[in-house]
Specification:
Blueprint (H helix, E strand, L loop, with lengths): L9 H10 L1 E5 L4 H18 L6 H4 L10 H11 L4 E11 L25 E6 L11 E5 L13 E3 L7 E6 L4 E3 L8 E9 L27 H11 L17 H10 L5 H14 L7 H5 L7 H12 L2 H14 L2 H14 L4 H7 L5 H14 L7 H10 L3 H14 L3 H18 L4 H5 L15 H13 L5 H11 L5 H14 L2 H14 L12
Antiparallel strand pairs: 1-6, 2-8, 3-6, 3-8, 4-5, 4-7
């Protein structure tokens, strides 16, 4: 049982929502980190980077993520049933480079990126790291932006004693800073996955309202409030905001006029203010919809989240933008529809028949992000899974079904069928595993079997809500998938099911794949 004293506070959660990172000071002794460092300094030159095998190669690392401090932080952000993802990596930053790493977001694992924290990462420093050693630099608050902010952004260099860990939103812009010291800097990156949508706060939640840090550079109060409310288990579009109930007509008119201002900061503030008023400002939905293609992503995000708070009128504008706008506009509209919640479900279900596969995929993605209130759209999603020719659409449908969960029996049967079909089709994709004829610019080329990978994840998320016996056979077969991450999710799902057949499959898999940390190239045995 985790001691609740180690859960994050409201202030820490507010920082994570607004800035996208938290620095954790793990209390393991210095000797522990020294032992990890000595093993790293032996493994790298003798064997090369173990990549995903860093944990079984240096199993002591697991202790870092079992301390109450780390478990409390991950539970607070990702819920009590989070899992560690199978991808992890040892990063080294050599001194003497001429420039820092490029700013980037990591390659993502879900069908699309989400503003809500379904994923997180931890950077663990195995040694004392100072700023001159080039720690991983983060750009605070940029997890919601597709475009890089450049010099507008606030950069932070989290560093500290050995054992320092940085918990970040998966989509935060970051890079390895320039190492101007004479020492090699190491960092271990681990990733974590939320399995279920929040039903209640999983941190030490004591106050109703989100209190923002004073030093936030850009203001996204409606967006941040959406994440805060979702983490509290409140459904989109209906959760209370802290704005005054009464609407000042003069102020409303001023904010509406400011939507046309030349200054992007003024437009962004006006959109945010109108969003806080919700349906009381719905007469300005058309003006806000016109900002979805604003050159400033900050303005566009505030506009789409504002529309998501404006009930039927706001949803109508967002659905129209998703149907007829550019791909960028349609994607931005999706985030607003996610915030709108149940009111948007019928329109999104209709968009599953849109002639453009990108719109159909977006509609499926948003239905999944809305979650349980999208239950009425399950028949349309199941039809799309059977009939849609687009793999990208089907993959979004599969992930959505795993997030909606009910009716579990129908969904589990459909996901099991999709997983089995994907496994049968893997032979036709043999070129992917051989490296021949592959376009490595394709999104997520590192996932070989995207349908099977996503189906295994969705079955894991549904867990025992359905009949595990329907899925165990397909999950056992997925343990032999060509996709290493499909294998990993299948194993995790079998661990959760715990039926007799699932346990036997797990034990067999472990027996065949167990890593011996003492057998390697350098040991010569």
């Amino acid at each position: 049982m985790l001691d609740s004293n180690y859960l994050l506070t409201d202030d820490q959660m507010a920082q994570f929502i607004t800035k996208g990172f938290l620095v954790l000071r793990n209390d393991l002794p210095a000797s522990f980190h020294e032992r990890i460092m000595s093993k790293i300094e032996y493994v790298l030159p003798a064997e090369g980077n173990p990549g995903n095998n860093i944990l079984p190669r240096i199993p002591e690392l697991g202790a870092c993520f079992e301390t109450p401090l780390v478990r409390g932080a991950l539970t607070s952000v990702l819920g009590p049933d989070y899992i560690m993802h199978a991808h992890r990596h040892l990063h080294g930053n050599k001194p003497g480079k001429e420039q820092a790493q490029n700013w980037h977001k990591d390659g993502y694992w879900s069908s699309m990126r989400s503003h809500r924290p379904w994923w997180a990462m931890i950077f663990y420093y195995t040694q004392d790291v100072t700023e001159d050693m080039g720690p991983s630099e983060v750009m605070a608050g940029t997890q919601y932006y597709e475009k890089f902010l450049g010099e507008q952004g606030e950069t932070v260099l989290p560093a500290g004693k050995a054992g320092t860990m940085v918990l970040i939103h998966f989509d935060l812009w970051h890079r390895a800073a320039l190492n101007v010291s004479d020492k090699m800097r190491y960092m271990l990156k681990f990733q974590f996955v939320r399995l279920t949508a929040p039903a209640s706060p999983s941190w030490n939640h004591t106050r109703r309202d989100l209190v923002l840090p004073e030093d936030t550079r850009f203001r996204h109060r409606v967006l941040w409030q959406d994440v805060w409310n979702w983490l509290k288990g409140e459904s989109g579009g209906s959760a209370a905001y802290s704005a005054a109930d009464a609407t000042d007509a003069a102020a409303l008119a001023r904010w509406a006029a400011d939507l046309q201002a030349d200054d992007a900061a003024v437009r962004a503030e006006a959109a945010d203010e109108l969003g806080l008023l919700g349906e009381a400002a719905a007469d300005h939905a058309a003006q806000l919809a016109g900002l979805l293609d604003d050159a400033s992503e900050i303005v566009a995000l505030n506009a789409t989240y504002a529309l998501g708070r404006m009930g039927a009128k706001g949803s109508e504008r967002l659905l129209a933008a998703m149907a007829a706008g550019t791909t960028q506009v349609a994607t931005r509209a999706g985030y607003g529809l996610q915030g709108a919640g149940a009111v948007a479900v019928p329109g999104l279900a209709t968009l599953l028949a849109h002639p453009d596969e990108k719109r159909r995929a977006l509609a499926a993605f948003v239905l999944g992000m809305i979650g349980a209130p999208s239950g009425a759209a399950v028949p349309a999603l199941l039809a799309a899974l059977d009939d849609d020719a687009s793999e990208w659409v089907r993959r979004n449908v599969i992930e959505a079904l795993g997030l909606i969960v009910q009716p579990a029996e129908r969904i589990v049967a459909a996901l099991t069928g999709a997983l089995d079909r994907s496994l049968r089709e893997e032979g036709a994709a043999a070129a992917i595993t051989s490296g021949e004829g592959i376009d490595y610019t394709e999104p997520q080329w590192y996932i070989v079997n995207k349908i099977g990978y996503t189906a295994a994840l969705s079955l894991l998320r549904i867990g025992n809500n359905g009949d595990p016996n329907l899925a165990v056979g397909a999950l056992k077969r997925a343990l032999d998938s060509k996709d290493r991450y499909a294998r990993a999710y299948a194993f995790e799902a079998l661990c959760h099911y715990r039926t007799e057949e699932a346990i036997q499959a797990m034990l067999t898999f472990i027996g065949h794949s167990r890593w011996c940390a003492d057998t390697h190239k350098a040991s010569n045995t």
